[in-house]
Amino acid sequence: MDEVFSDIYRIQLPLPRNPLRAINSYVVRGADRCLMIDTGMNRPECIEVMRTSLRELAIDLDRTDCFITHSHSDHVGLVSELKTRSSKIFLHSADAAIILHPNLWADMAAAARTYGFPDPDVAVEKHPGRRYLFDGEPEFTSLREGDTVSVGRYLFQCVETPGHTPGHMCLYEPDARILFSGDHILDSITPNISGWGPAPDPLGDFLASLEKVAAYEIRLTFPGHRNPIPDHRRRIEELEEHHRVRTEEIVNILARNEQTAYQVASQMTWDISYTCWDDFPVPQKWFATGEALAHLLHLERAGKAMRSWRDGGVYFAL
Ligand SMILES: [Zn+2]
Ligand SMILES: [Zn+2]
Protein backbone atom coordinates (compact mmCIF):
# COMPACT_ATOMS: atom_id res chain seq x y z
CA MET A 1 0.00 0.00 0.00
CA ASP A 2 1.38 3.43 -0.91
CA GLU A 3 0.20 7.05 -0.94
CA VAL A 4 0.23 7.81 -4.68
CA PHE A 5 -1.16 11.34 -4.39
CA SER A 6 -2.21 13.58 -1.56
CA ASP A 7 -4.76 11.62 0.57
CA ILE A 8 -4.98 8.92 -2.13
CA TYR A 9 -3.72 5.41 -1.37
CA ARG A 10 -3.19 2.46 -3.69
CA ILE A 11 -3.84 -1.06 -2.45
CA GLN A 12 -2.41 -3.73 -4.77
CA LEU A 13 -4.49 -6.88 -4.50
CA PRO A 14 -2.81 -10.06 -5.79
CA LEU A 15 -4.35 -12.09 -8.63
CA PRO A 16 -2.54 -15.45 -8.42
CA ARG A 17 -2.14 -17.43 -11.67
CA ASN A 18 -3.45 -14.44 -13.62
CA PRO A 19 -1.27 -12.59 -16.18
CA LEU A 20 -2.56 -9.28 -14.79
CA ARG A 21 -0.71 -10.18 -11.53
CA ALA A 22 -2.58 -7.63 -9.38
CA ILE A 23 -5.44 -5.16 -9.37
CA ASN A 24 -5.16 -1.63 -7.98
CA SER A 25 -7.79 -0.46 -5.56
CA TYR A 26 -7.53 3.22 -4.61
CA VAL A 27 -8.80 4.84 -1.42
CA VAL A 28 -9.40 8.59 -1.36
CA ARG A 29 -9.51 9.84 2.20
CA GLY A 30 -11.87 12.62 3.26
CA ALA A 31 -12.64 14.02 6.71
CA ASP A 32 -16.27 12.80 6.67
CA ARG A 33 -16.37 10.08 4.06
CA CYS A 34 -13.87 8.11 1.99
CA LEU A 35 -14.15 6.78 -1.54
CA MET A 36 -12.78 3.46 -2.73
CA ILE A 37 -12.20 3.05 -6.46
CA ASP A 38 -12.46 -0.64 -7.53
CA THR A 39 -12.29 -3.54 -5.11
CA GLY A 40 -10.52 -6.73 -6.25
CA MET A 41 -11.76 -10.25 -6.95
CA ASN A 42 -13.93 -12.22 -4.58
CA ARG A 43 -11.16 -14.63 -3.58
CA PRO A 44 -9.33 -15.11 -0.27
CA GLU A 45 -6.03 -13.64 -1.50
CA CYS A 46 -7.71 -10.31 -2.29
CA ILE A 47 -9.90 -10.25 0.81
CA GLU A 48 -6.95 -10.74 3.11
CA VAL A 49 -4.86 -7.90 1.63
CA MET A 50 -7.89 -5.61 1.49
CA ARG A 51 -8.78 -6.21 5.16
CA THR A 52 -5.19 -5.67 6.33
CA SER A 53 -4.76 -2.50 4.27
CA LEU A 54 -8.04 -0.96 5.43
CA ARG A 55 -7.05 -1.64 9.02
CA GLU A 56 -3.66 0.04 8.52
CA LEU A 57 -5.33 3.04 6.92
CA ALA A 58 -7.99 3.11 9.67
CA ILE A 59 -10.76 3.22 7.07
CA ASP A 60 -14.31 2.95 8.42
CA LEU A 61 -16.43 1.09 5.84
CA ASP A 62 -19.60 2.68 7.24
CA ARG A 63 -18.26 5.96 5.94
CA THR A 64 -16.77 4.69 2.66
CA ASP A 65 -18.50 4.55 -0.72
CA CYS A 66 -17.21 2.53 -3.68
CA PHE A 67 -16.87 3.72 -7.24
CA ILE A 68 -16.59 0.78 -9.64
CA THR A 69 -15.05 1.66 -13.02
CA HIS A 70 -16.63 -1.38 -14.72
CA SER A 71 -18.28 -4.73 -14.15
CA HIS A 72 -15.32 -7.16 -14.43
CA SER A 73 -14.81 -9.41 -11.43
CA ASP A 74 -11.34 -8.03 -10.61
CA HIS A 75 -12.90 -4.57 -10.09
CA VAL A 76 -16.36 -5.34 -8.71
CA GLY A 77 -15.77 -8.72 -7.02
CA LEU A 78 -15.51 -7.56 -3.41
CA VAL A 79 -18.49 -5.17 -3.27
CA SER A 80 -20.65 -7.53 -1.21
CA GLU A 81 -17.77 -8.01 1.21
CA LEU A 82 -17.23 -4.24 1.64
CA LYS A 83 -20.77 -2.85 1.45
CA THR A 84 -22.42 -1.64 4.64
CA ARG A 85 -25.94 -0.30 5.28
CA SER A 86 -24.71 3.26 5.10
CA SER A 87 -22.47 3.00 2.03
CA LYS A 88 -23.15 3.24 -1.69
CA ILE A 89 -21.71 1.30 -4.60
CA PHE A 90 -21.54 3.40 -7.77
CA LEU A 91 -21.59 1.66 -11.16
CA HIS A 92 -22.84 2.74 -14.58
CA SER A 93 -26.29 1.31 -15.32
CA ALA A 94 -25.11 -0.33 -18.58
CA ASP A 95 -22.59 -2.46 -16.68
CA ALA A 96 -24.96 -3.14 -13.76
CA ALA A 97 -27.51 -4.44 -16.29
CA ILE A 98 -24.93 -6.86 -17.75
CA ILE A 99 -23.60 -8.21 -14.49
CA LEU A 100 -27.02 -8.65 -12.85
CA HIS A 101 -28.69 -10.15 -15.93
CA PRO A 102 -30.17 -13.56 -15.03
CA ASN A 103 -29.17 -15.07 -18.39
CA LEU A 104 -25.63 -13.69 -18.40
CA TRP A 105 -23.82 -17.04 -18.40
CA ALA A 106 -26.32 -18.89 -20.58
CA ASP A 107 -25.92 -16.06 -23.12
CA MET A 108 -22.13 -16.36 -22.85
CA ALA A 109 -22.31 -20.09 -23.58
CA ALA A 110 -24.57 -19.41 -26.58
CA ALA A 111 -22.14 -16.76 -27.88
CA ALA A 112 -19.20 -19.13 -27.36
CA ARG A 113 -21.01 -21.72 -29.49
CA THR A 114 -21.88 -19.15 -32.19
CA TYR A 115 -18.31 -17.87 -32.53
CA GLY A 116 -16.62 -21.24 -32.66
CA PHE A 117 -15.65 -22.48 -29.17
CA PRO A 118 -15.54 -26.28 -29.58
CA ASP A 119 -16.80 -26.93 -26.04
CA PRO A 120 -18.83 -23.88 -24.96
CA ASP A 121 -20.28 -25.33 -21.75
CA VAL A 122 -16.86 -26.19 -20.36
CA ALA A 123 -15.58 -22.79 -21.48
CA VAL A 124 -18.29 -20.87 -19.62
CA GLU A 125 -17.72 -22.91 -16.46
CA LYS A 126 -14.10 -21.81 -16.41
CA HIS A 127 -14.76 -18.15 -17.17
CA PRO A 128 -12.82 -16.13 -14.53
CA GLY A 129 -15.53 -13.46 -14.47
CA ARG A 130 -17.95 -16.06 -13.18
CA ARG A 131 -15.72 -17.70 -10.62
CA TYR A 132 -14.65 -14.58 -8.70
CA LEU A 133 -17.77 -12.44 -8.87
CA PHE A 134 -19.53 -11.00 -5.80
CA ASP A 135 -21.97 -13.02 -3.68
CA GLY A 136 -25.68 -12.22 -3.75
CA GLU A 137 -27.22 -9.33 -5.66
CA PRO A 138 -25.68 -6.06 -4.49
CA GLU A 139 -27.58 -2.84 -5.02
CA PHE A 140 -25.78 -0.39 -7.32
CA THR A 141 -26.26 3.36 -7.51
CA SER A 142 -26.01 4.51 -11.10
CA LEU A 143 -23.77 7.38 -12.20
CA ARG A 144 -23.30 8.76 -15.69
CA GLU A 145 -21.36 11.30 -17.74
CA GLY A 146 -20.96 14.62 -15.93
CA ASP A 147 -22.11 13.39 -12.51
CA THR A 148 -19.77 14.40 -9.71
CA VAL A 149 -18.49 12.65 -6.60
CA SER A 150 -17.15 14.84 -3.80
CA VAL A 151 -14.63 13.40 -1.33
CA GLY A 152 -12.28 15.40 0.90
CA ARG A 153 -10.46 18.03 -1.13
CA TYR A 154 -11.47 16.47 -4.45
CA LEU A 155 -14.46 16.87 -6.74
CA PHE A 156 -14.42 14.04 -9.26
CA GLN A 157 -16.25 14.07 -12.58
CA CYS A 158 -17.58 10.89 -14.18
CA VAL A 159 -16.33 10.31 -17.72
CA GLU A 160 -18.10 7.64 -19.76
CA THR A 161 -15.52 5.59 -21.67
CA PRO A 162 -17.33 2.67 -23.36
CA GLY A 163 -15.18 0.05 -25.10
CA HIS A 164 -13.52 -2.23 -22.53
CA THR A 165 -17.12 -2.66 -21.29
CA PRO A 166 -20.24 -0.76 -22.46
CA GLY A 167 -20.60 1.09 -19.13
CA HIS A 168 -16.93 1.70 -18.34
CA MET A 169 -16.34 5.00 -16.53
CA CYS A 170 -13.24 6.95 -15.53
CA LEU A 171 -13.05 9.54 -12.75
CA TYR A 172 -11.43 12.88 -13.51
CA GLU A 173 -10.39 15.60 -11.07
CA PRO A 174 -9.92 18.87 -12.98
CA ASP A 175 -8.04 20.86 -10.30
CA ALA A 176 -5.54 18.11 -9.47
CA ARG A 177 -5.61 16.99 -13.14
CA ILE A 178 -5.63 13.32 -12.23
CA LEU A 179 -7.60 10.49 -13.83
CA PHE A 180 -8.61 7.10 -12.49
CA SER A 181 -8.71 5.11 -15.72
CA GLY A 182 -9.91 1.64 -14.66
CA ASP A 183 -9.05 -0.68 -17.58
CA HIS A 184 -9.55 2.03 -20.24
CA ILE A 185 -5.87 3.04 -20.29
CA LEU A 186 -3.20 0.72 -18.87
CA ASP A 187 0.56 0.98 -19.04
CA SER A 188 2.73 -1.93 -20.32
CA ILE A 189 -0.32 -4.12 -20.99
CA THR A 190 -3.08 -3.47 -23.49
CA PRO A 191 -6.68 -3.43 -22.22
CA ASN A 192 -8.62 -6.42 -23.52
CA ILE A 193 -11.30 -5.25 -25.94
CA SER A 194 -13.78 -8.04 -26.24
CA GLY A 195 -16.59 -8.77 -28.67
CA TRP A 196 -18.46 -11.02 -26.21
CA GLY A 197 -20.67 -8.29 -24.75
CA PRO A 198 -23.86 -6.71 -26.12
CA ALA A 199 -22.17 -3.77 -27.90
CA PRO A 200 -22.25 -4.07 -31.72
CA ASP A 201 -18.77 -2.49 -32.17
CA PRO A 202 -16.80 -2.38 -28.89
CA LEU A 203 -13.47 -1.67 -30.62
CA GLY A 204 -15.00 1.36 -32.38
CA ASP A 205 -16.36 2.52 -29.00
CA PHE A 206 -12.96 2.01 -27.38
CA LEU A 207 -11.06 3.99 -30.03
CA ALA A 208 -13.58 6.84 -29.73
CA SER A 209 -13.18 6.79 -25.93
CA LEU A 210 -9.38 6.97 -26.31
CA GLU A 211 -9.78 10.10 -28.45
CA LYS A 212 -12.15 11.54 -25.86
CA VAL A 213 -9.70 11.08 -22.98
CA ALA A 214 -6.75 12.33 -25.08
CA ALA A 215 -8.41 15.76 -25.03
CA TYR A 216 -8.33 15.95 -21.20
CA GLU A 217 -5.54 17.77 -19.40
CA ILE A 218 -4.06 15.06 -17.15
CA ARG A 219 -0.93 15.20 -15.02
CA LEU A 220 -1.12 11.60 -13.77
CA THR A 221 -3.34 8.65 -14.70
CA PHE A 222 -4.05 5.95 -12.12
CA PRO A 223 -4.94 2.69 -13.91
CA GLY A 224 -6.64 -0.47 -12.65
CA HIS A 225 -3.47 -2.52 -13.15
CA ARG A 226 0.26 -1.77 -12.92
CA ASN A 227 1.76 1.69 -12.41
CA PRO A 228 0.61 5.30 -12.76
CA ILE A 229 0.96 6.75 -16.27
CA PRO A 230 2.67 10.15 -16.56
CA ASP A 231 1.86 10.83 -20.23
CA HIS A 232 -1.61 9.59 -21.15
CA ARG A 233 -1.43 10.93 -24.73
CA ARG A 234 1.73 8.98 -25.53
CA ARG A 235 0.14 5.82 -24.12
CA ILE A 236 -3.07 6.41 -26.11
CA GLU A 237 -1.03 6.66 -29.31
CA GLU A 238 0.64 3.34 -28.49
CA LEU A 239 -2.71 1.67 -27.87
CA GLU A 240 -4.07 2.99 -31.18
CA GLU A 241 -0.99 1.70 -32.97
CA HIS A 242 -1.40 -1.71 -31.29
CA HIS A 243 -4.91 -2.02 -32.70
CA ARG A 244 -3.81 -0.89 -36.18
CA VAL A 245 -1.20 -3.69 -36.21
CA ARG A 246 -3.77 -6.19 -34.89
CA THR A 247 -6.26 -5.26 -37.61
CA GLU A 248 -3.60 -5.87 -40.26
CA GLU A 249 -2.75 -9.25 -38.78
CA ILE A 250 -6.39 -10.33 -38.73
CA VAL A 251 -6.98 -9.21 -42.30
CA ASN A 252 -4.00 -11.36 -43.35
CA ILE A 253 -5.41 -14.36 -41.46
CA LEU A 254 -8.86 -13.89 -43.00
CA ALA A 255 -7.33 -13.62 -46.48
CA ARG A 256 -6.59 -17.39 -46.29
CA ASN A 257 -10.21 -18.54 -45.98
CA GLU A 258 -13.44 -17.87 -44.04
CA GLN A 259 -13.15 -18.64 -40.34
CA THR A 260 -14.80 -18.42 -36.93
CA ALA A 261 -13.54 -15.87 -34.38
CA TYR A 262 -12.09 -18.80 -32.40
CA GLN A 263 -10.12 -20.00 -35.42
CA VAL A 264 -8.83 -16.49 -36.11
CA ALA A 265 -7.69 -16.13 -32.48
CA SER A 266 -5.80 -19.44 -32.65
CA GLN A 267 -3.57 -18.03 -35.43
CA MET A 268 -2.86 -14.60 -33.93
CA THR A 269 0.36 -13.84 -32.04
CA TRP A 270 -0.13 -13.55 -28.29
CA ASP A 271 2.28 -12.22 -25.72
CA ILE A 272 1.88 -15.25 -23.48
CA SER A 273 4.16 -18.02 -22.29
CA TYR A 274 2.38 -20.93 -24.03
CA THR A 275 3.88 -22.23 -27.22
CA CYS A 276 0.73 -23.43 -28.95
CA TRP A 277 -2.97 -22.56 -28.91
CA ASP A 278 -4.01 -25.96 -27.55
CA ASP A 279 -1.97 -25.27 -24.40
CA PHE A 280 -3.72 -21.95 -23.68
CA PRO A 281 -5.81 -22.18 -20.49
CA VAL A 282 -9.53 -21.70 -21.14
CA PRO A 283 -9.64 -18.16 -19.59
CA GLN A 284 -6.91 -17.05 -22.03
CA LYS A 285 -8.88 -18.54 -24.92
CA TRP A 286 -11.86 -16.44 -23.81
CA PHE A 287 -9.80 -13.24 -23.84
CA ALA A 288 -8.08 -14.06 -27.13
CA THR A 289 -11.27 -15.04 -28.97
CA GLY A 290 -13.05 -11.99 -27.52
CA GLU A 291 -10.35 -9.72 -28.88
CA ALA A 292 -10.39 -11.39 -32.31
CA LEU A 293 -14.17 -11.01 -32.34
CA ALA A 294 -14.01 -7.29 -31.45
CA HIS A 295 -11.74 -6.74 -34.46
CA LEU A 296 -13.97 -8.83 -36.74
CA LEU A 297 -17.06 -6.86 -35.66
CA HIS A 298 -15.16 -3.61 -36.29
CA LEU A 299 -14.07 -4.77 -39.76
CA GLU A 300 -17.61 -5.91 -40.50
CA ARG A 301 -19.04 -2.53 -39.50
CA ALA A 302 -16.51 -0.79 -41.76
CA GLY A 303 -17.62 -2.98 -44.67
CA LYS A 304 -14.25 -4.78 -44.80
CA ALA A 305 -15.44 -8.21 -43.60
CA MET A 306 -18.70 -10.09 -43.86
CA ARG A 307 -20.30 -12.92 -41.95
CA SER A 308 -22.13 -16.03 -43.01
CA TRP A 309 -24.00 -18.59 -40.92
CA ARG A 310 -23.28 -22.29 -41.18
CA ASP A 311 -24.36 -25.10 -38.81
CA GLY A 312 -25.44 -22.54 -36.19
CA GLY A 313 -22.06 -20.79 -36.21
CA VAL A 314 -20.79 -17.52 -37.62
CA TYR A 315 -17.93 -17.47 -40.14
CA PHE A 316 -16.13 -14.31 -41.19
CA ALA A 317 -14.57 -13.62 -44.60
CA LEU A 318 -13.06 -10.62 -46.38
ZN1 LIG B 1 -11.67 -5.10 -17.07
ZN1 LIG C 1 -9.08 -5.25 -14.75
- The count of DSSP E runs of length 2 or more, i.e. the number of strands, is 13
Give the SSE string: EEEEHEHHEHHHHEEEEHEHHHEE
Overall shape: it is: globular
Q: Which strands sit side by side, in order, in the main sheet?
A: 1-2-3-4-5-6
Can I get a quick summary?
The chain is of the alpha+beta class. The protein has helices at residues 44-57, 73-76, 79-82, 93-99, 104-114, 120-125, 128-131, 202-214, 232-254, 261-267, 282-301, and strands spanning 2-5, 8-14, 22-28, 34-37, 64-67, 89-90, 148-151, 154-160, 169-173, 178-182, 220-223, 306-310, 313-317.
Would you write up a description of this structure?
- The strands form 3 sheets. A 6-stranded mixed beta sheet has the order 1-2-3-4-5-6, with helices on one face. The protein has a 5-stranded mixed beta sheet with strand order 7-8-9-10-11, with no helix packed on it.
- The chain has 11 helices and 13 strands.
- By secondary structure, it is of the alpha+beta class.
- The structure holds zinc ion (2 copies).
